[in-house]
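ok trying this again, last paste got cut off
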Amino acid sequence: MSTLHEQGWLARFDHAEALLMAVRELRGRGYTQLEAYTPYPVEGLAQALGPMRNRIPLLVLLGGLVGGFGTLLLEWYASVIDYPINVGGRPDASWPAFIPAALEMTILFAALFGVVGLFFANGLPRLNHPLFDVPCFEAASRDGFFVWLRADDPRFDATLAHDDLARLAPLAIERVGR
């Protein structure tokens, strides 16, 4: 059973210019949840699809802050509260000694948060996608130009979306998901 963001309509076009025009037309009608599939890069398609929200940089920053400040807190607790040792009259909380470990943990946690965020953002691990069940979608890597109008679009209505796609004269329109 597929979720709402795995459903919608998939339209196939015969060439890149028709796909680009269709994406611009659909964006002009207010659709925001569009995905395009082509066998080669199409100039202007990324701009026509619109900006994508990318939360990975924020997640990497959060991971770095958690790793760095967590390590500083752990080192401070260990050397000041849990087991203070007088070494040559130096203060217990000697922060310059804490910097190397905190820097290493900042980098480690930022990288780990980034990789985990990448997996979640891409929906991995995933063995199958509803688009693979559409018979004509195998042409996406050879000579097919597809636009997927996802059902999680705020403007999506199954009948209206199908009619909007049909006005663009695609080669075929197929339902994605159940």
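PB: full thing came through this time. The mean pLDDT is 91.
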